[in-house]
Design brief:
The structure holds 2 protein chains of 2 kinds. By secondary structure, chain A is mostly helical. Chain A contains 15 helices and no strands. The chains are: A mainly alpha, B alpha+beta.
């Protein structure tokens, strides 16, 4: 118990201290977070009328970011899996960083859930015994698996850090089963999120069984892209060294998941547009516009260009093996997938409406600020979690060390 | 958090004077309200996350509308799980709030479905002239939000204008691929009676128009409603007499039901509904036309406040050409049953297996 309190105290003390760069970064994020809180307040007093959502397009940026971030959270498994199943040396050293990323991504997902709801003050209606949990609702399952995933990553990640901190070996009988469960669980969160959209025959754009695998493929491309970027930043700005072997394995995973994702997108285009039924109207609107309304067309094509050129760049050894150039295709793929799964998937699901009405979606300033604010919150949490984890992995905080210094 | 910590309906009952204060505070110019409400909140002493958020929502809004909401309304259970006493109490609470808000005696009915009744609806699409009187009557009867800003107007009935379309000799060669011989005829692009691409906003000088037919739609009251299946809190459900209803006080506004509905029947209250006092219909039903709040979903419920008392829905009553028929599907002599037995009847989007109890027919 005394070890635990000293862990908490040392950890908190360590993550709160930093250089000017750290405080400037956190300060900027904090400003955005305050902005986010203000517009969230606005949404819950004025109503969602301050957003660009309508009765036709009843979800937009928020659901889009929610779907995307579930993928980022699931993407952490691309570190955990090679580390524990294939015993990859380089990965094993940094696994915990992936878990920290998963934790911050899930927290962002929760904030986007609050953001898109009409009555977040009634969230307790979902929680028994006074609330009702519905097993027939995909949203119910989504909440369940996301909470489970958060819990698993908190336990696995912080137990590992705690063990490092105290210098005791990890209890494998307790630890390994949780690791394996979290690997399967990661797949479940994104599969259920895919079902949330695809189980709606009323929305032909979403209603196909390809969605779960496409979600997984894009998740395992976008997630590791962010992880690679984070690793490169960690390598250049902290004492921690992430091995090349870990980064190159992640690059390989990104490349082929991205390839599969592009293939699935092209398959969908061919299947939908060859017959060109009314059910293809959503995709047609996305690609070319419908009735002269073309808001999403630039989004779609920029996503296609970003994803395909990132894929080509990843295939060129001069790019993928050069850590100076690697961030370029990573950022391109990340943004491309963000568009494809967000504006390119959620919004055209609503256009046209089930009765054929074609309207356009204009995200309002409130929506953009709230979205950016939630991302800022995510990066705020991620910075703290990574800082703490790196401090422990590097042995800068360990049991007894700090206490001795205090004496 | 234990639910017992919540100030429940009982705690309000213990303090009738408090309720009175709140009712009296419906006047926006009264300055003392905020403090009295705040002290009441303190007395409640609930420290859960939800109650804090509820308190924030409560304090965030000034004005008479929110002042009249009683604390217990935030913590009531799902209506279907309430005991008859709790249901009566919830309705009485709403009656007090609505009466204060709209300056008139408002009744909130709770009549349950009757055994032996399965409501059904039939619409003669040959007769419909597209006058949209049903839309107007529905808005007035069911206290929908009206207003000038987009997003404030809510209409449950949509009348789709379908083009009759015309086929012509000179379009014969305009097919795809252009100039390479005819693979798809030019007339293939002529709209005619399409269900998925009708027009929704039409303002003709007179109806019916020569080149159009009309297709009114609203909630189909499905026997297998996809919206009910996806609801994470079971706030929308099918009643015993077949009508799909919503407990507006339990809805969390997640909008999953709006994604699931193939008929685009559901509407979201993007803001606090705009409902002028003098236009408010004071005869309401808990599951039906009682005024809704910001952030919840609503839809057609076949005027439960009328139909549970053997009256026709407002749209049936107002239709000038008698295109709309309503009745009990379990009674073989009812108008709807006779139509099903004798006319050519179809359901909209039958391939979705939602089994609507709203039928279309023609003579």
């Amino acid at each position: 118990m005394q070890q635990l309190t000293s862990f908490a105290a040392d950890y908190t003390r360590y993550v709160l201290k930093g250089g000017t760069k750290f405080y400037v970064w956190m300060g900027c994020l904090a400003v955005l977070i305050v902005g986010m809180m203000y517009v969230f307040y606005l949404q819950n007093t004025e109503g969602l009328i301050v957003t660009g959502m309508t009765s036709q397009i009843n979800d937009g940026l928020y659901l889009a970011n929610l779907v995307f971030l579930v993928g980022v959270a699931a993407g952490a498994v691309t570190i955990v899996f090679p580390a524990y199943v294939y015993h990859h040396e380089g990965m094993h050293k940094v696994t915990v960083l992936g878990e920290m990323l998963a934790i911050s991504a899930v927290l962002m997902v929760f904030l986007f859930v609050f953001a898109h709801m009409g009555r977040p003050d009634r969230l307790w209606h979902m929680i028994p015994p006074r609330g009702i949990y519905s097993f027939s609702s995909m949203l119910g399952w989504d909440v369940l698996v996301l909470n489970g995933y958060l819990l698993l990553n908190l336990v696995v990640g912080f137990y590992y850090l705690y063990a490092k901190y105290t210098g005791k070996p990890v209890n494998k009988k307790f630890f390994m089963p949780l690791v394996y469960i979290s690997i399967v669980w990661a797949l479940s969160i994104h599969t259920v999120t895919a079902f949330l959209l695809s189980n709606n025959p009323a929305r032909p754009m979403w209603f196909h069984s390809m969605m779960p695998i496409r979600f997984i493929a894009t998740a395992f491309a976008a997630g590791p892209c962010l992880i690679i970027l984070a690793f490169l930043i960690v390598r250049n700005n902290t004492k921690m060294w992430v091995e090349d072997s870990a980064i190159s394995l992640l690059t390989t995973i990104v490349t082929w998941c991205l390839g599969i994702a592009i293939f699935l997108t092209l398959s969908e285009v061919v299947v939908e547009l060859y017959a060109r039924t009314e059910h293809a109207n959503g995709l047609y609107y996305l690609m070319f516009g419908l009735h002269g309304l073309t808001n999403l067309v630039p989004w779609f094509w920029s996503s296609v260009v970003l994803m395909i050129s990132a894929f080509v760049l990843f295939l060129i050894p001069a790019f993928r093996n050069n850590t100076k150039l690697l961030p370029v295709p990573c950022a391109m793929a990340f943004v491309g997938i963000w568009i494809e799964k967000g504006m390119g998937l959620v919004v055209p699901g609503y256009i046209p409406t089930p009765i054929g009405e074609v309207t356009e979606y204009y995200p309002s300033f409130v929506e953009w600020l709230l979205t950016i604010g939630i991302w800022a919150f995510g990066f705020f949490v991620l910075t703290i979690l990574l800082k703490g984890a790196i401090g422990i992995l590097q042995g800068e905080i360990k049991y007894g060390g700090q206490a001795a210094a205090v004496k | 958090m234990s639910p017992k910590e919540n100030p429940s309906a009982d705690s309000v009952k213990d303090k009738p004077s408090q309720c009175q204060t709140q009712l009296a505070s419906a006047d926006p110019s009264a300055p003392g309200i905020t403090t009295s409400r705040r002290s009441f909140l303190k007395a409640g002493g609930a420290l859960s996350m939800s109650s804090l958020m509820g308190a924030a929502a409560l304090m965030g809004q000034s004005g008479d509308v929110e002042a009249a909401i009683e604390w217990a309304e935030h913590f009531q259970k799902n209506y279907r799980l309430m005991t008859p006493e709790e249901k009566a109490e919830a309705r009485a609470r709403l009656e007090r709030r609505y009466s204060a808000e709209y300056d008139k005696k408002v009744s909130v009915d709770g009549t349950e479905s009757q055994p032996g009744v399965l409501m059904g609806y039939a619409l003669n699409i040959r007769k419909c002239i597209g006058c949209r009187r049903c839309v107007k009557a529905c808005v007035e009867e069911n206290n929908q939000s009206r207003g000038s800003k987009p997003g404030q107007r809510i209409e449950w009935i949509q009348v789709l204008r379908m083009e009759r379309g015309e086929f012509s000799q000179d379009k014969m060669d305009h097919g795809y691929p252009e100039g390479l011989g005819i693979q798809v005829g030019g007339n293939a692009y002529t709209p005619a009676g399409q269900v998925l691409e009708g027009q929704y906003f039409y303002e003709p000088e007179a109806v019916p128009e020569k080149d159009a037919t009309y297709m009114p739609i609203a909630c189909m009251q499905c026997e297998k409603p996809p919206c009910v299946k996806v609801c994470p809190v079971r706030t929308t459900f099918r009643e015993g007499d077949g009508v799909v209803v919503i407990d507006y006080n339990w809805c969390i506004g997640c909008k999953m039901c709006m994604n699931a509905c193939p008929y685009w029947a559901r509407r979201f209250n993007l803001t606090t509904p705009v409902l002028p006092k003098e236009e408010m219909n004071p005869v309401t039903h808990y599951m039906g036309n009682r005024p809704r709040m910001r952030g919840v979903v609503e839809k057609c419920h076949w005027c439960l406040q009328r139909t549970r008392h053997s009256r026709y829905p407002a749209c049936v009553e107002v239709c000038p050409v008698g295109a709309r028929k309503f009745g009990n599907l379990l009674d073989p002599e009812s108008e709807v049953s006779l139509i099903l037995a004798r006319k050519n009847v179809f359901r909209l989007k039958a391939e979705y297996n939602t089994f609507p109890k709203f039928f279309y027919f023609y003579d």
